[in-house]
Write a structure and sequence with these properties.
It contains four helices and eleven strands.
Length: 198
Amino acid sequence: MKLILALVLFTLISPSEIVPNMMKSIYVPENNIVISGVDESGNAVSLEFDKSKKVLKKTEKGEVKELGFAEIPLFLRLFFFDGKKNSPEAMTASAKSLSEALKNAGINTEVSAESVSDFDGNATVALGKAKRFSEDSALELAKNSMRPAVLKISDEIYVFSDYHKSSIPLVFPGRIKFYKDGMLVGEWTFLRNEYRKK
């Protein structure tokens, strides 16, 4: 009975609840979040987010950039936000800020639909789609975990996977694939040692 009730309630999730639920599912309590991995050529990729300063230090191909909060690319803003879980006001403000960023990127945050990922066939909830087969820009979240699965903005697509193999288990993707005009143009991997190729 509880399972049936949970499924019914999940089906009724409103678009306004999607971003806050996603944030809860990927929340990291530490003030500093550090992720290290490599790109498709084996170059080091490092992401270091300081919640208190709202600054992301990104190292890619040996180049270090410090990005203020407004400069953080949207696909990373999904994972790096400054809300504190024990402060509902801060989490609400962060969710509002992220929803606004999604809206500014062309995602209609007023609509959502149950969908299926084109990349792995898993069930998703798609913020920005009014119908499952819509080609609109959208943020797709895995239905079972509410973690980002796909971010589609116009002709750019970011695919997030392998959370269970990530260097921060379960809350950050082990892989991020970058597509442009349907073509794979890059990949970052953040896998724990036991999942890396020898």
